[in-house]
Amino acid sequence: MRYLTVEAAPDGTAALHPLGTELRDDPSFTREAIHHVELLDDRSVLMLAEGSGDRARYAEIMRESPYVEDFLVSGTDRWMAVSQFELSGPAKQIMLRADVPGVVVETPIHINADGSLRITYLGDESALQDLYSAIADDVPFQLDVLETGTYAPDQHSLTRILTPRQRDVLEAAVESGYYREPRRATHEDIAETVGIASTTVGEHLRKIEQRVFTALVR
Fold first, then answer.
1. How many domains does the chain have?
2. Above 70 in pLDDT, residue 156?
3. Per-residue pLDDT tens digits for 175-213
4. Helix, strand or coil, per DSSP, at residue 170
5. Range of 190's domain?
6. β-bridge partners, 119
7. Under 8 Å CB-to-CB from 57, ≥6 apart: which residues?
8. Are strands 117-123 and 2-10 parallel, antiparallel or unpaired?
9. What is the Cβ-side half-sphere exposure of residue 98, based on CA atoms within 13 angstroms?
């Protein structure tokens, strides 16, 4: 099985869905992630999403939106929201064209501050190619491929963004105590374990940290 991680971003300043524009622009709460999304038979969407901040303001926007058919919010500072809403705009294109046999979406789907989505699809090579052709064909949003590779179910999503060599270096760094306080290993120690030059270890660790930290804040 393979995975394909893409970033779907709106063209211009609009969000992927009209409702998303209002949710994105309100500073009193933050949309964190989407934990489940399902296209229903009537072409509406059922979604389980996570948020933080002013839950009451979020509920007010949802209640007043002409797109929302029903919703329920539970929790306090960190809350979960179940909603059913009407598809519209680029979000409609994403959902309808991504309905490709043999492809599933890995959750959570991360919501970036600008309203774009970081989505990982799972399937075989042929199915993922069909998916990309479907969603990249004349759609009203920007679609960037971030990562692709072999999917390992027991592997954390953050480590999948690393190359095999980067994972070897990271594992050696952690096991040797490089990230402990006080530090118990050097680049030379890691280099000896992995079998590469110490200068190469430094280059790998910088790239690892850049990729992981970038993924964490997206």
1. 2
2. no
3. 999 988 888 999 999 999 999 999 999 999 998 888 777
4. helix
5. 159-217
6. 6
7. 26, 28, 29
8. antiparallel
9. 21
